[in-house]
Automatic annotation (TrEMBL):
Ranges annotated as spanning the membrane: 6-27, 39-59, 65-84
Alphabetized UniProt keyword annotations: Membrane, Transmembrane, Transmembrane helix
Lineage summary: Bacteria, Bacillati, Chloroflexota, Ktedonobacteria, Ktedonobacterales
Record flagged with keyword Transmembrane: yes
Name this polypeptide is given: Transglycosylase-associated protein
Length: 91
């Protein structure tokens, strides 16, 4: 039982990283004028994806299903990319 929940959490984390990486790559493609470069936007997307994936559990919504968690993962990755772009634009 404990091993199954541990494997579920590990799988969710891997999927959050993958979704965040894809969101970072797409964000780099969409924001052509971005000065950060593809590797940095992918890393920012991964970080945002992991934070977005963890967010539902932190506020008590973790029982809403994996689709909801993945959607918040995508939103977290996009939000992190937008935040990073604004920070670069300010300099």
């Amino acid at each position: 039982m404990v091993l199954a929940s541990l494997l579920d959490a590990l799988w969710a984390g891997i999927v959050w990283i993958a979704i965040g990486g894809v969101a970072g790559a797409i964000g780099d493609y969409v924001m052509q004028e971005e000065r950060l470069g593809t590797p940095v936007t992918v890393v920012i997307g991964i970080g945002g994806g992991v934070l977005g994936g963890l967010f539902p559990g932190l506020i008590g919504l973790s029982d809403k299903g994996m689709f909801w968690t993945y959607m918040t993962c995508v939103c977290g990755a996009v939000a992190a990319l937008v935040f990073a772009k604004r920070q670069v634009d300010r300099t």
